[in-house]
Amino acid sequence: MKLPRFISSTSVRETGLVRAQDIGALTNVGDAEFRAIQQAGQAIGHVSDVGFRAFMSRQALDDDIKMGEASVKVKEAEGLEITAIQSRNFIAEETRPDDPEYWKGGAGYDVFEKMAGIKAAQASYRSKITKLSSVIKNPNTRKQWENQQLNTGYTNIEKAYNAKHDDYQRTKILGNAETSAANGDIDLSNQWIDIALKHGLVTHAKSVAERKKNKELFADELINDVSNQAFAIWQETGDISDALEIIEQSDVPGGDKQEVESELKTRILIRKAVDKDALAQRQEEELNEINQAIFFDRDYGKAKLAVENSSLSEKEQGVLFSDIDKRANAAAKGLPLANDRVEEARLFDLSLKIWNGTISKPEFDKELSKNANKLDDSAYQRISSSASTTLKSSQAEAATRASSETRSVLVDFVTEDAMAAFIADSVRGLAPDVAQAFTNNANEERQLQFWSLSRYNSEIRQWLEENPDKLSLDALDFYMIPTPCFWLPQKQELALGVAH
């Protein structure tokens, strides 16, 4: 079959276009030629298909590379969301009341609030995945990769949020249970544990352990509270029977009441002893002030005021008032005071016994104050000064003795000559460098020994400042105790130096 011929009125060259009908008009070919043209077209189409497939293969390869790079960053994106969850401060965000009825009904353990938190974290994660997937060109590949990452990430994020949320709820509820027990409400404590059990925050075994712990806490707090109440009543009334009545009427179990009563009696004895020591110290200071005004300042008005404001008994105050009046009248009339020479001699001799610890300085001061009305001012001043001087001399002698004995322990060679002789004897026959090293180490050791001794002497001076009334025997006890504390570290430091 031949194509029909047409005559074109316009030259091909004039338009530059070739239409389908022009082919038939311009050519006259047979079937063979047409088939050849058809085959050429098929060949061209095959070449185009091969090129397209090559292009698609290259794109797939590029997508594989980009997916690998994006997958590396997925864990980082997931980690950011989980870190944000773990660092979230639920306590600061808490606005719900600590009402067990509120939490018991499920409102406290807010499932909707938890789901909202999970969805917010997942949405943030999704935006990160979408951004990472944008480098993947093939839409189907990109969608498949996104779904895979989102499924895994969503699961991990939900697990992390549930763990954080439940841990907070568990901590809060069990904390409320413990606080309730500590505040003396064991029933409320058990209600909170019931809530934790209901919402699956604790196992049955855990709830049993929490109840036992809180019951013990409740009992301890109850005992402490009752004990404190009873002690406060005793302090207020001074009558122990009132305190014991508080214990008897309390909710403390019968077996524990005896323990509470025993503890109360012990506390009372301790307080009495402390109060007694404090009173003695206060009265000692008050007497020193009074005696200073009477015997040294001769300010009898000041002395009377000090007696009135003191904690001394009425009897002691009466004796002092009488003595002050006697001295004031004698001074006003210009008359000398009578002085008991026998008592003066006894008290002076007693002041010297402070040296050997026969009597303490506070004990002596009390004895002197009690008999001061038998002395004139000069005698009192002489005896008082003797006691102070004796104490200081005693302490100084003990300090000197302790320092000397400690030096004999800490320092191997006190004099330079002895040290030089030791070194000379020790390095004889040694190589020069070895001899020099030995000399350096020996001198450093001696310096360390004297440094330790100076530390020890500083401790002595500090103790004297803090304990001005302590006897020499007390001082010696203190002085000799620290010696190993300075000796052993010094030897340890030396050993480390030698090892290096």
The major beta sheet can be summarized as: none
Protein structure class: mainly alpha
| Helical run tally | 20
Poorly predicted runs are 1-27, 481-500
What value does the average pLDDT take?
Answer: 77
- Overall, the morphology is flat
Order of helices and strands, N to C?
HHHHHHHHHHHHHHHHHHHH
Question: Which short descriptors sum up this protein?
Answer:
disordered N terminus; 500 residues; disordered C terminus; mainly alpha; flat; 4 domains
General description of the model:
There is one protein chain. The protein is mainly α and 500 residues long. The chain folds into four domains: 12-62; 65-221, no CATH class; 238-337, no CATH class; 338-499, no CATH class. The protein is 80% helix and 0% strand. The chain contains 20 helices and no strands. It has helices at residues 12-15, 20-26, 31-86, 90-93, 100-104, 111-133, 139-182, 186-198, 204-237, 240-248, 254-296, 300-308, 314-333, 341-352, 361-370, 377-410, 416-427, 432-466, 472-480, 483-499. Helix 6 (111-133) runs antiparallel to helix 7 (139-182), helix 9 (204-237) runs antiparallel to helix 10 (240-248) and helix 17 packs antiparallel against helix 18 (432-466). The longest helix is centred in the first third of the chain and has 56 residues, at 31-86. 20% of the residues are buried. Residues 1-27 and 481-500 have low confidence and may be disordered.
